[in-house]
Amino acid sequence: ACGGDSKDNADGLEGSVVIDGSGTVFPFMAKMGENYMGEQENVSVEVSRAGTSAGFKKFLVENGTDFNNASRSIKDEEKAEAEKQGIEVQELKVALDGITIVINKDNDWAKELTKQEIIDIFTASKGKKNWSDVRPDFPNEPIKTYGPNENHGTYEFFYEKILEEQALPEKINLQQDYSTLVDLVSKDKNAIGFFGFGYYDNNKDKLSAVNVDFGQGPVEPSLDTIKEDGDYAEFTRPVFTYLNVNHAKEKPQVLDYAIYTMENAQEVAKETGFAPLSDEDKQAALDALNGLKK
Amino acid sequence: MKYIDTTVVERKMGKRLLANKIARLVFLLATFFGTAVLAVLIYRVVSDSMGWIDKDFLLNKLSTDPERAGILGAIYGTLWLMAVVAPATMILGVGTAIYLEEYAKKGKFQSFIQTNISNLAGVPSVVFGILGLTIFARALGLGSVVLAGGLTMALLVLPVVVVASQEAIRAVPQFLREASYGMGATKWQTIKNVVLPAALPGILTGVILALSRAIGETAPLVVIGIPALLIPLPNGILDKFTVLPVQIYYWTVDSALTAEYANLAAATIVILLIVLFAMNSIAIIIRNKFQKRF
Amino acid sequence: MGITAGNINGTSAQGIGKKNIVYSTQDLNLWYGDGHALKSINLDIIENEVTAIIGPSGCGKSTYIKTLNRMVELVPTVRISGEILYRERNILDKEYKVEDLRTRVGMVFQKPNPFPKSIYENIAYGPKIHGIKNKKVLDEIVEQSLRGAAIWDEVKDRLHQNAYGLSGGQQQRLCIARCLAIEPDVILMDEPTSALDPISTLKVEELVQELKKDFSIIIVTHNMQQASRISDKTAFFLNGEVIEFAETSTIFSNPSDKRTEDYISGRFG
Amino acid sequence: MGITAGNINGTSAQGIGKKNIVYSTQDLNLWYGDGHALKSINLDIIENEVTAIIGPSGCGKSTYIKTLNRMVELVPTVRISGEILYRERNILDKEYKVEDLRTRVGMVFQKPNPFPKSIYENIAYGPKIHGIKNKKVLDEIVEQSLRGAAIWDEVKDRLHQNAYGLSGGQQQRLCIARCLAIEPDVILMDEPTSALDPISTLKVEELVQELKKDFSIIIVTHNMQQASRISDKTAFFLNGEVIEFAETSTIFSNPSDKRTEDYISGRFG
Amino acid sequence: MDRTTGEKRLDISGLIEKKKKTASVGTIAEKMIPGILFGIAAISVLTTIGIVLTLLTETVLFFKEVPFLDFFTGTKLKPLGKDAVFGVLPLLTGTLLSTAIAMAVAIPIGLMTAVFLSEYASEKLRKILKPMLEILAGIPTIVYGFFAFTFVTPLLRSFIPGLEPTNILSPGIVMGIMIIPMVASLSEDAMSAVPNAMREGALALGATKLEVTWKVVVPAAISGIIASFVLGISRAIGETMIVAIASGSSKNFTFDVTQSMQTMTAYIVEVTGGEAAAGTTLYYSLYAVAMTLFVFTLIMNLVAQYVSRRFREEY
Ligand SMILES: Nc1ncnc2c1ncn2[C@@H]1O[C@H](COP(=O)(O)OP(=O)(O)OP(=O)(O)O)[C@@H](O)[C@H]1O
Ligand SMILES: Nc1ncnc2c1ncn2[C@@H]1O[C@H](COP(=O)(O)OP(=O)(O)OP(=O)(O)O)[C@@H](O)[C@H]1O
Ligand SMILES: [Mg+2]
Ligand SMILES: [Mg+2]
Ligand SMILES: O=P([O-])([O-])[O-]
Questions:
Q1: ipTM of the complex
Q2: How far apart are CA C260 and CA C237, in angstroms?
Q3: In E, residues 75-114, which contact A (CB 8 Å cutoff)?
């Protein structure tokens, strides 16, 4: 669907595509939308970043958003809500992300940590107040923990899958905006935080990533290690966008955008700091989407 | 009675005069403090924007790529917003002023409206944002479009226009009204043909000041909800939009992720300040030109 | 409204001959709040005459003249009793539309009060609000009115300039012209020359003499000489009452009331 | 500063006897912008006398008296030439601190201008700024000053009430008391009674007579009777010039200048 | 009326008379206009009612879920997640601290500026300085936010080592700068209204300008000056963008100004930015906080009006 001839609207598409949800996926989707609009001049793609969970609330309502980006898969209660609302939802895995543990550039002691140490740091009950509580040779200074707030899929993934639902420290600094997080960690020597790889990748000059020892020695998060079967697999998670199928059927531009996204997902993923999904996953998604065409 | 010893008074005089001199200097410095901050602020903003303001910046649409990003969308959004705010505040503000000055009987009701208006002037702009969000965006189902934002903004700046118009109307000498009534003109004819034309410069000054306030307001629009990435240009009052200050907000917040966004924010600030400065100059020119006419 | 016609002769102290009565004021009382400004006024105004109203400051001259076109009602605290018959209809009647009244009764104020518009627009204002839109007709009205106010020659080349550029005397004649443009029946003038220099004053006085051929004129003045020069009848007000109302010559040569005599001879006021 | 002492007799028209000169004004000229308000004034003020300054409105009386404590400098456009010797020092000298001068020379204004504070605070203001902090001493100063201004009995029970609760005449005497509280050498009064009723005026006049025992007083007045009642010397100003300066009795009974005579006999002004 | 002046004349009154018969439409408009204007004037009242009602209805729902006392005495605010807690004290301390800092800057500098302009400055200098202040007053708050975040905070951090990258100190100071013109111009108005006679009275006693200012002019203008402070406080409480950008969103309950804190206004921006879905406690909390904010500023405005009305009656 190439809208070269803008006057001929039978060929070109028009209307809007409204996307909200994950802040992690935001850079990916923003880039995608921008590229798409370069080709389809009469379609307006709006991308926001309320966070995965907040995004689902706006997605699963009448006249809700067309897509919801998510850095975790849809929950059962959200599925139930979709059913109640009569919204058919198509999950589209768009890329892979690695939860990256970031520290301040000036932090020269915690460049490598074991997975357990990381869990301990972020678990309230373990009571790690100072860096020296983690390892005796670390400085005797307070640990400052940071992360995205509960609106975010990243938080939920971290809390559910990595911490196994143990409470986070009381004093953890949870933020709505990833940019704020980056800023905070980059300016706080004792900081340690977590978020998606992309935000680290874009800010390598401001932040350091912790190389995580999952048992076989420290692994640096990178587009090579972040794979479903890679060395960083334990902290790797797929990221998604969820499509409102009802909308896709009503509005050709929505379906067209979905197809466009899947066709270009691998390429845009690399540009925005995500590991690309496999060719099989891509093809499966495209097949499903093409099936929605009349 | 000999309590005042002139030699003592003279001796102390030196100290008192010194205190006066020092105080004068301190007051002078305090007065210049504001000016100095203004200078630093402008210097910072201009130097941060150096090299970023060019034709492309003004004429390009928004982009995630700082090199390609432009503020045309925000300019369009600002213009459309004004297209709602200007007539709405004019009608509401001038209408209210006419009612209060020409029709309302002096008394409890009139002073009630008057008090109400001065209280409205003190209501924080976020609260207006909530009003707009609840009433215009949600209850009326407009969504976060120009019309919703514009109406919210119109209510926000209403007191400015009302007060300025009231002053302008009050300044129209009674003898002009008498002359018109004496010709058999009705009240409305008198207001329309004599009072309003004579009060027009004052009213215009107020309206311009109100608009310049509206152009710079951010909070109510953020509360109503403006997408973080909105590339298409708004083409009417029912389109979603962004405006210069909101763009500054997002770029400032995101500058932690992409440093160049700070430059874009600074460049946008320069443009915004130029616009505001021009508007205020026009207001001052009108005010001076028509000051003492009767 | 024929009912009241019979009263006219009865209530007025003056003989009228066979001339038409324009205004007949009958037992008029007026209060500003608690201040009793006009007390039982009875006064008949005759067609095509100049009636002067004189009296010391604060005696109610302006109040009375402003009652004749109900302009006094702009003061919110005003209360009025009695009747004023204009052409045999009571203008104090709620039914009577003030706008109609004021279209028939023009007014010239103490301080010249042109609108901050062009000379042309000042004159055209009245006809326009009364619905005359035709440019040709308006042009004609403007010329005719300015001629009528003896100012045409002075302004004919600058009709579209702002009226504030005129001298005080010219402005006052412009205001008179503005009045003429709706061709009133009566013209009320409240000290029309008190803000003017002697030469301008003279011009206005001449104009008044000219105008009385076509209009009935009621003029308030502080200037005794002026009253005696231009008016046919004179009413002397004091403390809200009409002390004496008679032919101007009578009032000035042979007043019947001591107070009138004191006033016109300059003993107070 | 002894240099100028020799001039005094030369420049003044009046004989001085052996009395001390407080102020000696020598060839004083003053301009407001381009307006020449004082022209070559020469005038000597004698200790413990009341000197009245009279003259028609705008002749420069206030200007002159305000020059004596350099209050006139508050007008930004003022330019002054000449000399005013106060106790033999030239007060127009840049070196001379106005604050010192004003501590020695009190001033009472036309309109009473108490501070919006309590009566007590009004009086205590001067002593306080001059460094007197002791409550006892202040109390005593307040009482003495109020007694000195003949108002103590009227206000002693309400010292801590706002001065604005006093009548105009009381306020003016309060201002005089405020002046006394800094124990000045000279008191300048610019039409101190013109805003007061006759009874208050009388009281202030009596007070002035009382005060001259301790102070030298210069008083501007419009009221010829007042000048003749209370002053020892009188200066008649006209158009910024001193036309005549002499014993009050001489000025009022036997003026040497025609214009003085015209003025005091009410022929103009 | 047939006038007999010889030359042909236009019968204007006849024309007018004729028009009048067809002009009844105008009279209807004439009758409707007061009503229409009344309706327009009522909109400002409706706006207030609208604000109060929207805030109130949702606030009531909020207090059905979160007890009133818990909200106003709770020191913990954690609006998200399963264990959400709604205590408003962290926001209140954030708001009060930022306001206090702002006023600590704005009151002395604003007042001194006012004194300088009204008592010391020559007419010429005033003519230059006042427009400067007006410009300062006209700068949008988002610009101040940018300034606080990109300039003032880094500057402060270079000599306050413990200062967090987002903190309440820097936006507080910048907010103060923003409020200086308001305090200055309102206080100056109050001081200029003090009659000159009072200054002269004091000067004639040998007072220096400083003594006149401090002991006569300022006390006489005090209610106007206080009103300007109160309005400044109200403005600081309601200021949003500066804190939203520069003070972070930590919901700390602390009095340490070097820490990141959140104000009521910034909370509103954060929660609406995350777009709380209608019907959740989080969503209602938005209104409860906004209501608190509204009440605070309303009280301040009423106080300011009361104080300045008293001041006008003084002389
Ligand atoms: N708007 C008003 N409200 C209250 N009292 C008024 C008002 N206008 C006039 N008066 C009072 O009514 C009385 C008559 O006033 P009016 O203006 O009619 O006097 P006048 O004869 O025209 O005096 P002048 O020669 O000074 O114009 C006066 O006592 C005046 O104080
Ligand atoms: N501040 C000023 N600026 C310019 N001219 C002034 C100023 N004050 C006074 N004048 C002019 O100086 C002249 C003398 O004024 P001054 O006030 O001394 O007169 P006065 O004798 O006190 O009159 P009055 O009896 O009316 O008080 C007048 O022509 C006056 O217009
Ligand atoms: Mg009058
Ligand atoms: Mg004087
Ligand atoms: O913003 P999230 O990707 O963490 O939901």
A1: 0.83
A2: 9
A3: 80-81
